[in-house]
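Model: You mentioned two targets. I'll fold them one after the other.
Researcher: Yes, keep them separate.
Model: Target one:
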Amino acid sequence: MSQKIYILCVEDEADVLDVVVRELSVLEDVFPIETAGSADEAREALARIEAEGDALGVVFCDHMMPGENGVELLVWMREHPDWNVSRKVLLTGQAGLDATVKAVNEAGLSHYIAKPWDQDELVKVAREQLSRYVAARKLNPLPYLKYLVMDIVGDTLRANSASDT
C-alpha cells in the first residue's frame, strides 16, 4: 500500500473548522484529513501521522489562535525535518502584513487564502499544493492521480530531472 499523504486543517473555531473539512472532504478518499484546534493539537496530529509512517502533504492553518499562533506553528514546521517539505497554506482573515511577511519569509508559505474563501478556490489550492508536494518528493503519482494537477506534477518532475543532470 502507498504511503498516506494527509491534509491537516488547523483552526480554533469549531464551526469554521467543520466548514473547511467539509469542503475539502471531496479529496478525502485519496488524501485523509486530520484536524486540530490549536498548535499543540497540530503537533499531536503530526506525531500520529509520523508514527504511522505517513506524510503531511499540506496544512491549512489559521493565524489567530489561542496560545501559539498559526504563523509560529508554520515556522516550527519549516524548521522540523519531517515537516519542512509539507506545503503550507495560511487560511485567515486576520493576519496583518508583518505576520504574512513572516509566514512567507520564515515559514516557506506556499499560499495565502483570505477568509471568507470560495470552496472552489480552496479545493483548487489543495489540489495544486498536493500536486507540488507529490512532485517535489518525487513520489509515484499513480496512487494519488485522481486529484493531482498533472501539469504541475509534470512540470515539477521535468524541472527536477533537468536539475539532476
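Model: Target two:
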Amino acid sequence: MCAQKTKRNSVIFAALVLMAACTLLLALVGERSNLKNPSGSPLGSPRLVSVQEVPDYGEVCAPEPPSRNASMIAALQEKNLFASFQETAVHAASPETGDTAEVTRPPVRTIKDTYPIYSSIAVDPLRDEVVLQDTNLFSIKVFNRLDNTTPNAEPAQPKRVIQGPHTLNEYNNGLYIDPQTGNIHSVAMDTADSMIVFPGGANGDVAPIRKLNTPHRNFATAVNEEKGEIYITIQYPPKVMVYRKEANGDEKPLRVLEGEHTRLYDTHGIALDVKKNLMFVGTWGNASDYRVAGTGKFYPPSINVYRLDASGDTAPLRVIQGSKTRLDWAGGMSLDPDRGDLYVANDVGDSILVFRETDDGDVAPARIINGDKTGLNHPAGISLDLKNQEFWVSNMGNSSATCYSLKADGNATPVRTIRSAPLGRTSVKFGKPQAVAYDSKREQYLVPN
C-alpha cells in the first residue's frame, strides 16, 4: 500500500514544528541582544547558507522488507569510499542578495594515476587464470594465465573485472583462491576492516557472498585447506588471526598470535607449510605500544617461523634476520613445500628473495632474482604455480605482473608479462595521500603519501 499521503503529512507536521521553534528562538535572541554584525543584520537572524537538491521520488510505496544480508550490504555501500566519489549538485547563497548559484564545478587540473597499481596476485592453475588486486582503481582483474603482453603490444585487457560500489572492494590485498570453488578471498589493508569473498567467475559490480569483519590494517592471507582455516596478518597492532575458512559477519577468530614474545613488529606476508606444521610470517620491524606515548622502536626486518597452531604470546621457533638477508619492505610470501623454498616479494629491494625454509639467523638468500631484465618494479605480491612450475609477481611500480620459472635466478627474463599500462611507464604510486601543500617558490605540490 502506498505511503505518499502519510509521508506528506509527516513532512508538513515536521516543518510546522521546525518553524515554530525557529520563531521562538529568534524572538528570544531579539530580546536579549541588539548587537549587529558587519553586514548590519542582527546576530541570530536567519540567512540561507546552502541548498542541496533533493530528488523527486514521485509515488513512494512501502518496499518489501529486505533480507538481513541485503540490508547489511546496503548499509555498507553508504559508508564505503565509492559514495565519496559521487557528485551531487550543491548551491550557495549570497548573504547580501540571497541569490543562489551552483558551486559544483570540475577542477582546473587533476593529478591522479589512471592505471592499475597491483598490490597482490594469485594464480589459479586449475582454471588457467591470474587474478590481480588493483588498489588504485579498487578492482580485481582476472587474466588468462597464458596472456603475454609483448613490448610492442597495447596494454592487456582482463577477461573479467570485479569493480564498483556493490563489491565493497577498496584498498584491498592478500588474495587467495579456493582451489575447489574458485572463490576469491581479499582482505582490506586500511579503510574497510574486512575480508570479502567473491564467487568463482564473478564479474562486474557484484556484492561479495561473504564479508568477515576483522581488525584494522589487514595485509595477507594463507589457508590450511586440510583444517579449513584461514590466516590473516594484521599490520598494527601486530598479530596473526586464524578463522574458520567459511567465517562470516562478526564471527570471532579460532585463535590469535600476538604479544611481546612473538617478535611480531609491523606484520605483513605469511606462508604455511602444512606438511611440516610451520608458519612463516614477515615483519617490517616498526614497533610501538599504541597505549603509551613515546614507545616507538625499530628492529631489523625479519621472517619469523612458528608452529602452525601457535597462539597467544608464543615466541618464534626461528628468526631469519640481519643484513645478509637483504629484506627490505618484504611483502607477499609463497612456499614451495616440495623443494623447501620460501619465495619473498622484496618491495623496496626490487627483487625476489628465495630462502630455504630451514634457514635461521643472519643468512643470505639461496637465490636472488633482480636486475634490468626481470621487469621487477616494487614487487609486492607473489604466487607459486606448482602445477606449471612457475611463479607470478605483482609489480606496484609499473602496472604489471611477471611470470618466471621456479628455477629462475639472477637477472632472469620473465617467461611472460601481463602489462596494464604503456611500456616504460612508472606508476604515480599514490597510496592514500592525506594532505597537500603548495610550494609557491618552486611551484611544486608536496603530498605525504
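Researcher: Noted. Anything on target two?
Model: Residues 4-36+49-92 form one domain.
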